[in-house]
Each structure stands twice: as structure tokens, then as C-alpha cells.
Design brief:
Elements: H1 2-29, H2 34-37, H3 44-53, H4 60-73, H5 86-122, H6 125-140, H7 143-157, H8 173-199, H9 202-209, H10 214-243, H11 246-251, H12 257-266, H13 270-298
Helix pairs in contact: 1-13, 5-6, 5-8, 5-10, 5-13, 6-8, 7-8, 8-10, 10-13, 12-13
């Protein structure tokens, strides 16, 4: 288990390093931000002077080494526009994003688990086809468009749910439904495939042969064996979901990282962009490392892979 943990930590460190490096390179390829930070009538001299004050006149390698030093010590500089610590601004928005991603993940996975269990308890191929078709139809609709439809129905037409902000628990409903239903079909397919694979195993046929009921076999034997690989994929998705709520946050004016990063990218506010990328990378590898450890705990055979 120790060797398994060390391998995962080494992979996590390499992933974070690669992500922040790519983020730095892509940011610098877009050019210096001076022209965007100053009024339209600013002279080229003023633009050059601002870029120099921000350090963009130095060699790229020197800028990169300074950036890596800042990552190590936890100082990515101040926002060019807001003049506050970039990491501090990200930390302020972090709870809202984590809350939204957590509940969306939980709702989507729980909904898929219930659907998969009902399908396998009933043994109905029609039910499997109908549920799968509904999930695939939802997945084909872009999140931003589905979110707008929810707003039109439940906020504008019915007036039963808030559409903007984070003012009450009810504010979570529409963004969570948007994200959860978008993830539902992926979890359903994974769970259905895993349970179908378990249903073909000898131990299941033996359990039926000795007279055990379908619900008992499903809940006590098939689910525990089917869940570990599904949890691994779900962990990957949860890590990505923490950084993938941007569009939904913007639609619902959710005060998370979405609006902050959207504005920072358009304004080339590199410290905020880099701080956001660092958070997403760290969150992704932490969540997946924890899930890997959980799966290895449940099924020790995976620790040797």
C-alpha cells in the first residue's frame, strides 16, 4: 500500500506541474496585458511601461522560474485589476464552487445508482432503454441551454425557484439539477455495465441456484463488487467537475470561480488565471488520489496495478 501511495503522489505532483506549466505558456502566448488594462487612448509608451512594471519585459525563462517559485511558496502575485492577492480571491470564491460541485456530483451519482438498481431488480430491457434514452437526450443538450430552459420554466413562468445568486438553499436547485442531469447518463452506463458484468459471474449463478433472492444478491454481492471501478471513474469526474462548473456558474450568477476566471481570462489577468488553474489541478489530483486509496482499500488487488 505504501508503494501504491508513493506512486500516486508522484503522479499527482507531475500532473500539477504539467498543468501549471501549460497554463503559464499559454498565458504568455496571448501576449502582455498592458493594452487591456489601460484606457483605449493610452499611448504605446504607457502600455510598454505598464508591461515592464508587471515584469513582462524580462526573459520568459526568468518569468517562468519566478512563477514556479511563487507556486512553491503560495504567492502567485496580485490581480492586475483588483490589486488583491490572486490566491486570496480564489479562496474567497472556492466554497461556492465546492458546494455546487459536491451536491451536483452526489445528486447525479445517487440518481444513476437508483436507476441502475431498479433496472437490474426489474430485469426490464424496456426500462433500461427508456432511462438510457432520456439520459442521452439530456446529455445532448448543452448545459448552458438546459440551464436557460430551467430558468424560463421554474423562475420566469412558475416563479418557484430563484435563478440568480447564492441567497438560500433553494438557489442550489437549478444549477445542481443542470449539472447532475448532465452527468447522470455517464454514471448510469458505468453502473449498468458493471452490474451486468457481475451478473454473468459464477458466484451470482450459484447464489440464484441455492435460492437467494434477487434483491439480496444485488445488494450484498453484486453492488460491492461492481462499485470499485465505478468509484474510480466517478472520482475522475468529480475532480473535473470542480473546474468544470464555469458555464453553469455564469448562467446562474453563482459567486464561485466561474465568473472570476471568465473575467480574468478575457482581461489577461494572469495571476488569477494561474491561481485558478493551480486550484483545479490540485483539487483534481487530491480527489482522485483519495478515490484511488478508497478503491484500493475496498479491493486491495487494485493497489498492485
Amino acid at each position: 500500500m505504501l508503494a501504491f501511495l508513493l506512486r500516486r503522489l508522484a503522479l499527482a505532483g507531475a500532473t500539477v506541474f504539467l498543468v501549471v506549466t501549460i497554463g503559464f505558456v499559454l498565458g504568455r502566448l496571448t501576449g502582455a496585458p498592458g493594452a487591456l488594462l489601460l484606457p483605449d487612448n493610452a499611448s504605446s509608451t504607457d502600455v510598454d511601461a505598464l508591461n515592464a512594471s508587471l515584469g513582462f519585459d524580462r526573459p520568459v525563462l526568468v518569468q517562468y522560474l519566478d512563477f514556479l517559485r511563487g507556486v512553491v511558496v503560495g504567492d502567485l502575485g496580485d490581480s492586475y485589476r483588483l490589486h488583491e492577492s490572486a490566491l486570496g480571491l480564489v479562496w474567497e470564491r472556492l466554497p461556492a464552487t465546492v458546494e455546487l460541485a459536491f451536491w451536483a456530483f452526489l445528486a447525479g451519482f445517487a440518481l444513476a445508482l437508483v436507476a441502475a438498481v431498479v433496472i437490474h431488480l426489474s430485469g426490464s430491457t424496456v426500462l433500461r432503454a427508456v432511462v438510457g434514452w432520456l439520459g442521452a437526450t439530456r446529455q445532448a443538450v448543452p448545459d448552458f441551454f438546459f440551464a436557460l430552459l430551467l430558468v424560463l420554466v421554474f423562475s420566469v413562468a412558475l416563479g418557484v425557484l430563484p435563478s440568480l445568486g447564492r441567497t438560500s438553499p433553494a438557489s442550489l436547485v437549478l444549477p445542481v439539477v443542470t449539472l447532475a442531469t448532465g452527468q447522470f447518463v455517464m454514471y448510469l452506463r458505468l453502473l449498468d455495465a458493471a452490474l451486468s458484468d457481475q451478473a454473468e459471474q459464477d458466484y451470482v449463478r450459484t447464489a440464484f441456484a441455492i435460492g437467494q433472492s434477487r434483491p439480496r444478491i444485488l445488494f450484498t454481492q453484486m453492488l460491492p463488487n461492481a462499485l470499485p471501478p465505478v468509484l474510480g471513474m466517478a472520482g475522475l469526474n468529480l475532480g473535473g467537475l470542480l473546474g468544470g462548473t464555469v458555464v453553469v456558474e455564469v448562467v446562474f450568477a453563482w459567486p464561485g470561480l466561474g465568473s472570476l476566471l471568465t473575467a480574468a481570462v478575457s482581461q489577461r489577468d494572469f495571476p488569477i488565471v494561474q491561481a485558478g488553474l493551480l486550484f483545479v489541478a490540485v483539487a483534481f489530483v487530491v480527489v482522485n488520489t483519495l478515490v484511488d486509496l478508497l478503491v484500493a482499500r475496498i479491493d486491495p488487488r487494485t493497489a498492485t496495478s
